[in-house]
Amino acid sequence: MPSMQVHYFSYTFRSNILVHVFVPDLDNHENPSTSDLTKLYRHEKKFPGVYLLHGAYGDFNSWIHSSNIERWAQESGCALIAASAENSFYQNMYRGKAWETFFAEELPAFASGLFPISDKKEESFTLGFSMGGYGAWFLALSHPDRFSKAVSMSGALDIAALYRGIQTNTYAGPFPWNDIFENPDKLEGSHADLFALFQKCSAAGNAPKLYQTCGTEDFLYSMNCDVRDRMKALGADLTYTEGPGAHNWDFWDEQSRKILPLLTK
């Protein structure tokens, strides 16, 4: 399976960055049926692109080293694009880097320009876990012209509730709140608030399709249930699943295999 890491100069960051890209084989890589190089490598069409978003304490290698995501992508016929975002919640930080701009604008342009990856909204999706689950919804709801579907697995989806919980030691996390947000005490209704973003998309008639899953033993399970109920009350096109599982790769890898065919069908 063609999997590669590309080191290039990012115009958003004005520095070099590492991006991981996976493109499915055109033939059976375990037992090739042909030695015709044009049939093996010449792509006549572009693949749907799934942008992978990692959680706190990790980077894009979390996906590559801890899951079978490339195997599931080969089965589903989609490309994967992954980059690291530190502990930024994928925001254009108040003091720091413009992560939202990079992931929503530069990375899709880079991926679709250099690889056989579609730049069409209908074939561009986000998939993330934990902090990246929030990021998947955030990027799609902030840029509904770019992404048509977004998947959150065990996502920290209520950013205001998470911040309040960290102040009371209900939750823990390595997030530099005062560097990410100008006013972390005023996240409700802000650009970082997924409920506010959805209402804006809904009013414009361009809300993306949302997917959400969480393990019943996950420490974010109660938050996910509350977000599910609030989003459905707002009229979101939301597919929700849950099952036995905690905040770990046993659950996320299983869910990834199930969700990729739903994105790409």
Describe this structure in words.
The protein is of the alpha/beta class. The protein has one domain: Rossmann fold. Helix content is 38%, strand content 19%. It has ten helices and eight strands. The chain has helices at 37-41, 61-66, 69-76, 99-114, 131-142, 159-167, 177-180, 194-204, 221-233, 249-264, and strands spanning 3-10, 15-22, 49-53, 79-83, 124-129, 149-153, 209-215, 238-243. It has an eight-stranded mixed sheet, with helices on both faces. The chain is globular, with a radius of gyration of 18 Å. The model has no long low-confidence stretch (mean pLDDT 95).
Which CATH architecture?
3-Layer(aba) Sandwich
Low-confidence stretches: none
Quickly give the structural class. Answer: alpha/beta
What is the helical fraction, as a range of percent? 25-40%
Spatial extent as radius of gyration: 18 Å
CATH fold assignment: Rossmann fold
How many helical elements?
Answer: 10
What's this model, at a glance?
With 265 residues, this protein is of the alpha/beta class. It contains ten helices and eight strands. Helix 3 packs parallel to helix 10 and helix 5 packs parallel to helix 8.
